[in-house]
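Bug #77: duplicate submission created two jobs. Keeping one. Sequence:
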Amino acid sequence: MSDAADVLLVEIVERHIALLTLNRPEARNAVNGALARAMAAAVTKVENDPDIWVAVLTGAGDGAFCAGVDLKEAAAGRAAEFETDEGGLAGFVRAPRTKVWIAAAQSHALAGGLELLLACDLAVVAQSATFGLPEVRWGLIAGGGGVIRLPRTIPKRIAFEMIATAKPIPAADAQRYGLVNAVVPAAEVVAEALGLARRICANAPLAVRESLVLARRAASPEETELWSLVATATGRLSSTADWAEGPSAFTEKRAPRWAGQ
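Kept job's structure:
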C-alpha cells in the first residue's frame, strides 16, 4: 500500500500559493486510504499556515485528474478507508476550509474526481477533459457530494441527466454550464490556475476569506440535512446485492449482472 507521503505531493510554489498533486497516476489518481489521509493532513496544513492564501489541486499524469475511488480496493473491503470523519471522501469534500482552493484538472474528473472539483471554489480544466458521475454504472451513489452539489452548480436537468445516465460531459459544456471557470490546453492548466491564484493573492487575504465564507453559504445553503439523507441512501444501497456486484464487475473486467435487489 502506498505511503501517504508518496500519494500526495505538497509544495509551496511561490509566496502564498501551495500546489498539491494527487500522485497515483498508475491508478488514474483514484482515492485510497493513503490518499485520503494525506489530503486530510494537507487541508490542516493549508488552514494552519498563515502564509498560504491559496491552494491549487491537480493530478499527476494524463490519465485523469482523479477517477474517483479505487474500486479494486473497495472490492477488497477497504472502502471505509476512503473517507475521514471530518473531511469525508478523500479527507476533503466536507473538510471545513477558509482558504481558496482551485482545482486544476489536467485530465478527466470522474466520480469522486468530480466531487473533489465540486468541493473546490474555482476550477481550471483541460480542453480534453471530461466530467461525470458514473457511480450508478457500478451500483453505487455519488455520496461524496456529487448528488448534492452538481444540481446546485449546473442546470438541474443537465445534472439529473448526468447522474442518472452516468454519461460524462466535455470541457466545453462544463464551461457553458458554469461548472468550471476556464478551459485551456492540458499543458497550460496548472500555469493558468497559478495565474488565477496570483490574481487572488493580489487582494487582501482576510477580505477574500471572509467574502468567500459568505459566498459559499449563499451558493450552498446548510448541507447538514442533505448529507444525512446521502448517508441514509448509501446505507440502503449497501445492504443490497447490487452494491457488491458493481465493484466486483469492475475488478473482474466484466459487465455487471444487476439483480435490482
